[in-house]
Each structure stands twice: as C-alpha cells, then as structure tokens.
Amino acid sequence: MTRPLSMDEANILAHVVEDPTAWWAHCQARFRGDPEAALAAKLGTHKAAHDTAAAMPGYMTRAEDEAARVRRQAPKAPTYRQLRAAAYAAELGREPGRMNALGDSLDAMLKQFYQLRLGGTPLIREMDDLLGKVLAIKARIPKPE
Q1: Distance between CA atoms of 89 and 82, rounded to whole angstroms?
Q2: pLDDT at position 43, please?
Q3: DSSP labels for 103-122?
C-alpha cells in the first residue's frame, strides 16, 4: 500500500529532486529494501540543508532552479530592431549583406529631396537643414572616382 508524502517530506525532497511525488512512487514500487527507511535516510541527509536554504530570500526548489537555469540558457529572441537591421542589410543596400543599407537608403532619400529642392519645391526646415549638412559633408569629403 502506498502512502502520500507529508508536506514536510515533500518540501525536503523538493530541495534535492525535481519531482518528489514521482521519486516517492518509484521508491515504493521499485526499491528492493524498505522504502520508508530509504525515505527516512534521504530526509535525514537533506533536512538541515533544506531548512537553511528555504529560510533564505529567493529560495527555489530543485525543479524551480532547473527551470530558471533552462530559461537563462535559452537563446533570446531577436528584437524587432535586430530583425529590421538584418533585413535592411540583406535587402536595401547596394551591396546586399553589407551594413551600408541604411546609409544607402538615406542617401537615396536625400538625393530625391535635393532634386525637389532644385526643382523649387519648398522643404520643411528640418529636411532643408539636414540636406544642407549632408551636402556640406559631401563637398568636404568627395566620393573617389
């Protein structure tokens, strides 16, 4: 006849095994000796360590600790910024796969705004200022032929 673990027994076992109920069921079903003696020995071995650890802030059972370890080791999902940066690099640049995609895209937009300015279209002040700065940099550092 099997008996359930007491709350105290389950708590002490949870300090050293991931599933105290499964451990106890296995012990009662498969252990060739006296399962109660095996349980008493295990509890006696680990009670002091359990009591000390359980009194500490942030105590976790063996199963909780293992789950936390797995979560810490799990690869983090890339953020949308990382995913976009990779897609920009792969799809927008003149040389796909190179990290010049944003620069190439910005350059194309600024060329279009420059054409609008040359055609007499008024630009908002912020764009006109940005375009002026970019043109000054390009004049100061020309592209090699």
Answers
A1: 11
A2: 93
A3: HHHHHHHHHHHHHHHHTTPP
